[in-house]
Design brief:
The protein is mainly β and 192 residues long. Helix content is 12%, strand content 55%.
Length: 192
């Protein structure tokens, strides 16, 4: 490879990352939520109040260069204290032993204002690959002239894969808590 080719390649590579920036999560406009069927007939919604993320995002191409997140399992909230205590127990998250769950992006495929994020989700020390749909990516300058990005992450997991195995059989068939958990995360982040 001659000198001109090397320099040209380096410039093209660097231009691809020129617009990428690091963003901090705006916790007052972000929600880390989930939904699971209860008694086979209704949805129970919940969220986690304490979390953090590392986001390297290119607004020009609407592409994530890196995305990783940490969620404190003890911060679970379904609106019912007794249920939340049960979810923190050994039957589910075992929050004392496993205080955090994590997500680490491994690849991202952009598709306009949407995309597909693949990564590794770790709960109770068990790591499994997951795919999240990224929807409605929007960028804007706020009142303080700061760059912001907003987007939704949606996916689903089987809680049994992560040893969240507690359940009770119902008399007429079915179980108290479904195995499938839907993940819905609404993120707003500010460029550093």
């Amino acid at each position: 490879m001659n000198f001109v080719t090397k320099v040209t390649s380096a410039l093209i590579l660097s231009m691809g990352f020129a617009n990428a920036a690091i963003y901090d999560v705006d916790a007052s406009h972000t929600n880390v939520g989930f939904t699971v069927k209860h008694m086979m007939i209704t949805n129970v919604n919940g969220n986690f109040a304490t979390y953090d993320a590392n986001i390297d995002f290119d607004p020009a191409t609407k592409t994530f260069k890196t995305f990783s997140a940490t969620v404190e399992t003890n911060s679970i909230n379904t609106g019912i204290e007794k249920r939340d205590d049960h979810l923190r127990s050994e039957d589910f998250f075992a929050s004392e032993k496993f205080p955090k769950m994590t997500f680490e992006m491994t690849s991202y495929k952009a598709d306009g204002d949407d995309g597909e994020m693949k990564g590794n989700l770790t709960i109770r020390g068990i790591t499994k690959p997951v795919t999240l749909k990224v929807e409605d990516i929007g960028t804007i300058k706020d009142f303080k002239n700061q760059n912001r990005v907003g987007f939704s992450l949606k996916g689903k997991i089987n809680r049994m894969d992560y040893d969240l195995k507690w359940n009770k059989a119902l008399e007429l068939g079915g179980v108290a808590v479904a195995e499938e958990v839907k993940i819905t995360v609404e993120v707003e982040a500010v460029e550093k």
